[in-house]
């Protein structure tokens, strides 16, 4: 996309989170940003300072006798080499609701309009500095809850996904151009067959590349959102102790009183490179206590929503009906069974459990910490069968919108291939190939519709 700056109105927002803090930033972007700042600032003439400088001064209210509002530092960044490609002013003021809100009100009274959520980033997109998938990466970066998610988002922000998508689109354009030439100049007999053959080969190759990209989506989604992992088991078997061990922190309350955990508790933790969204649940059993019953219901719900269940059993006691119920309830889920309290005399072993080869059974103990490493290894193996170490530049698809568009493009290519193989004319296949090209273009926003874009940026935070 060409760098083409349109003259939009000047927007302003508080870009730091609301509340008391050391410093807050009020950000302005647009052709009037510098003039607005000059009206409310006392210090060096901002029109004469060099670009990309930060300048000491005071914010004053020109409509109220020039009374001082705050002592500040003001950054001046001139178009087009800025975040939005427009003139950007950032007022670094003292953190605090009164100061920040008064400065925001002041810039709004002096010619700026309140920015919509995500509008600064939207301008960076509209002005061609970043594409749509990079804009989405900004959001992912802010919301990253794990290091892996942060890395994947930064990789996308750097444009690595965009490059892959652009290449795929170029390959499609090349095929279409080639077909066009062959149709227009059938210089020899059999041009039709040659064209069909070429289209078939190329479409198959492109389809395979898209399929490979889609294969990263499962891992990508896990890396982005964390794997929903529910720790379940009847009361007092050691669920909260396990959570604490995986967190390396005494987060959950552990006591010898059954029913200690009354509500689900969740935490993000990196286990051997797999970001887990760990959910400690209340022990599942029948109870007459109302509060406890709600906790138990939530535990059952946690099993339903889990990508992975860690089912904890107490190896120092025989299997109970509740244990059996949980074994049945999780039979269809990805699960790992933990035989806990193996430091005590054992009354329950793997031999007493249903034998199915896809469920790993691990002996653990909160006392000796045995089994923690084994558990981490099994989790890593379950989700990174093709090797856990990915390169920083390896492209990974993490976004549901991208996944859906890639799937659509894949379907379009399948239609192309099936059609050609069934002997349909080349111009029908051309249409589906064109569709794939458009679907891929929606990922980067080379092809976008206004409504979709508004929906997308609405989800951003204010000031971003
Ligand atoms: N104070 C402040 N901190 C911030 C931001 C900001 O806008 N303000 N950012 C905002 O999210 C992030 C940094 N991202 C940025 C990305 C691009 C440009 C930018 O000006 N790009 C120009 C010039 C690059 C250059 O000088 O080489 C360009 O790409 O043309 C600025 C910030 C995080 N920290
Ligand atoms: N000996 C031994 N005791 C353990 C082990 N794991 C946990 N415990 C003890 O068992 C008791 C219950 O542990 P918790 O981690 O609170 O069990 P829970 O499953 O979260 O219990 P609820 O929240 O009540 O459902 C505590 O006294 C722990 O110290 C273990 O491996 N060996
Ligand atoms: Mg507990």
Automatic annotation (TrEMBL):
Ligand binding (GTP): 236-241, 255-261, 280-283
NCBIfam families assigned to the protein according to its UniProt record, in alphabetical order: mnmE_trmE_thdF (TIGR00450), PRK05291.1-3 (NF003661), small_GTP (TIGR00231)
First-level EC class: hydrolase
Family of this protein: Belongs to the TRAFAC class TrmE-Era-EngA-EngB-Septin-like GTPase superfamily. TrmE GTPase family.
One family name in Pfam for this protein: MnmE_helical
Gene3D superfamilies per record: P-loop containing nucleotide triphosphate hydrolases, Probable tRNA modification gtpase trme, domain 1, tRNA modification GTPase MnmE domain 2
Cofactor note: Binds 1 potassium ion per subunit.
EC annotation from Swiss-Prot or TrEMBL: 3.6.-.-
Function: Exhibits a very high intrinsic GTPase hydrolysis rate. Involved in the addition of a carboxymethylaminomethyl (cmnm) group at the wobble position (U34) of certain tRNAs, forming tRNA-cmnm(5)s(2)U34.
Record domain TrmE-type G: where: 226-384
Identification of the protein by name: tRNA modification GTPase MnmE
Single GO molecular function: GTP binding
Cited HAMAP family: GTPase_MnmE (MF_00379)
Designated gene of the protein: mnmE
Location of the protein in the cell: Cytoplasm
Gene Ontology biological process: tRNA methylation; tRNA wobble uridine modification
